[in-house]
Amino acid sequence: MEIYREEVAAWIWRNGKIIPWNDALVHVNSVGHASVAGIFEGIKAYWNQEDNQLYLFRLEDHLDRFLASIKMVRFGFRYSKEEVAQATINLLRANEYRRDVYVRPYVFQKGMIRELLQATPGKETELIIDSWPFDSYRDPNQALHVCVSSWTRISDNVLPPRIKCFSNYHNGRLAAMDAKVSGYDWPILLDGQGKVTEGPGACLAIVRKGVLATTSTTGSILEGVTRAAVLEIAAEVLHIPCEERPIDRTELYLAEEIFFMGTGWEIMPVASVDRLPVGDSRVGPMTRAIQKAFGDIVRGKDPRHPEWRTPVW
Ligand SMILES: *Cc1c(COP(=O)(O)O)cnc(C)c1O
Question: What is the CATH code for 144-298?
Fold first, then answer.
């Protein structure tokens, strides 16, 4: 049965077995269950042609966060971190990937759509690991025109942004659609106090007076793995001073450089905010240096941080 026309993997991992992608079906009655409390991760693996190797980037950190999210939503979950890691490697081998890949493990409670609250602690879950080809190369001069969203970012006592949960994406989705209908590429969300949080699906950094600043992890953001890597790379490798602190909206208008950082986008520069140019609207020197160092480290072209790379082959 042909279900999906975009490029898909031959194999998907479901509840302990690697099965054909097109056989991974659910009943319509369970629609919504993957999303009401569903937890997920987004992980990338990078192909290095010279090493003839595929490197999963910070697999352990992603799986630590996966298990932390699962704990906070009180799911029953019977796999260890090591088992999910091995399952991920087995799946990438089964699909014989020799190119950049995106990996999406996700877990959701089994049940029917009638049980909308899903408020049964420890209830049985399904674990799926999907993957698909995802080339990370893009136009190095690409930069986004963004707006400050009129939608407020969810907060820790509402829908905790620290939990990587499908439901949180409704907040980002509203903001992203609103930005697009207003002619922007993407939004930045503020918290209830008007401080900068992040974009839908990617954390944010600004450069002001030569200092790289990003919202701290208690500022209604997801604790991004890319964000953590960028802070380390900026400080240790590039010797750029870094701060984790609250960021005002108007600092977005004065920043020399701004970029998003996340697994999917990696380092994505911002050209303008609310139609005010960021610097001279072109990708700035620190953003470029971080893009380069990040790209080389994830792929193992730069040998630093070997603990961040899990070889698949
Ligand atoms: C996944 C995600 C990010 C990026 O986190 P990474 O660990 O770098 O991939 C940022 N914000 C939100 C809301 C996310 O869901």
Answer: 3.20.10.10
